[in-house]
Amino acid sequence: MGGPILDIRGLEKTYKGGTKALAGVDLTINKGEIFALLGPNGAGKTTLIGAVCGLVNPTAGSIHAFGQDTAKNWREARRKIGLVPQELSFDMFDKVIRQVRYSRGMFGCPPDEARIEEVLRSLSLWDKRDAAIRELSGGMKRRVMIAKALAHDPELLFLDEPTAGVDVELRRDMWRQIDALRAAGVTIILTTHYIEEAEEMADRVGVINKGRILLVDDKEAIMAKLGRTEAHFTLAAPLAEIPAAFAHYPLTLEDGGLRLIYRGGDGTGKGKREVAELAQTLAGAGVAYTGLETRESTLEDIFVDLVERGEVEAAA
Length: 316
Ligand SMILES: Nc1ncnc2c1ncn2[C@@H]1O[C@H](COP(=O)(O)OP(=O)(O)OP(=O)(O)O)[C@@H](O)[C@H]1O
Hints:
Layout: E1 4-14, E2 20-30, E3 34-38, H1 45-52, E4 60-65, E5 68-69, H2 70-78, E6 81-84, H3 96-106, H4 113-122, H5 138-150, E7 156-160, H6 168-183, E8 187-192, H7 195-201, E9 204-209, E10 212-218, H8 219-226, E11 229-235, E12 251-254, E13 259-264, H9 270-281, E14 289-296, H10 299-315
Parallel strand pairs: 3-8, 3-9, 6-7, 7-8
Antiparallel strand pairs: 1-2, 1-4, 4-5, 9-10, 11-13, 11-14, 12-13
This protein binds adenosine-5'-triphosphate (ATP).
């Protein structure tokens, strides 16, 4: 992975009417990475993307893209940036291929029919190239949005909720497309509500809420730092209390003493190890169990936890 391709410092945006959508965002994106920006509705994700793409005028702070200060020279930076916005936007009566060609030209790239064909084929749009956009299904329209964003061969691609409301097949296609772009060295920033998407695709994850970045880290590091193991032992007979020999484990008794629950670990495997120890030693200590269910926390658990904790801290 390369050096910084995007550097955002102290970015703030207050809309007319007073909504503070960004409240001091610092974020550095490295060349070649896939960065997932997670956050609930209204967190400021679209505003942040808009600020980098020159669609939103920041109230304070700075953005450097490809080493250029976008406040001074956003056109130069914008040429190297592709944006697939959340909303569909194009001339519905125009033909697919013309819209894609037009996008390429708009960013000052010379015509290149071979490249246009390649982009259309990669998105399974080649057969539809002469169709008017309004004749296409919703999923196909979304593909056209991506084709348009790729037509000028951007080095940095923003995907704002690329798979919101699309079917499973199209979502898988998009993941494949993102993989291919990653292989070609394109840096990708995607926003999503689908945590599984971030879990599947991203190298790094940032969590944003109320215009503030709560956390940025490697996906693996987040899982390791904040991952938890939960294990439920269904006991053969109720326990009145946790035996002293197991007091050093993070255990609780529920269901009138019939369920022994382990909640702990740190994502480094400690949780699994401790649960395995318990599974082996409980019976020997006279605690028989008839069932064991375990689960590891997902990025979704971590995200919900962080946002809730962030809200608690903000309210405190
Ligand atoms: N043009 C605008 N004028 C006034 N307020 C706006 C405007 N655009 C966004 N906002 C407000 O700014 C805040 C952040 O919105 P933004 O669209 O950036 O969030 P988001 O994280 O992209 O949300 P979602 O996941 O719902 O798309 C919200 O409170 C929103 O209502």
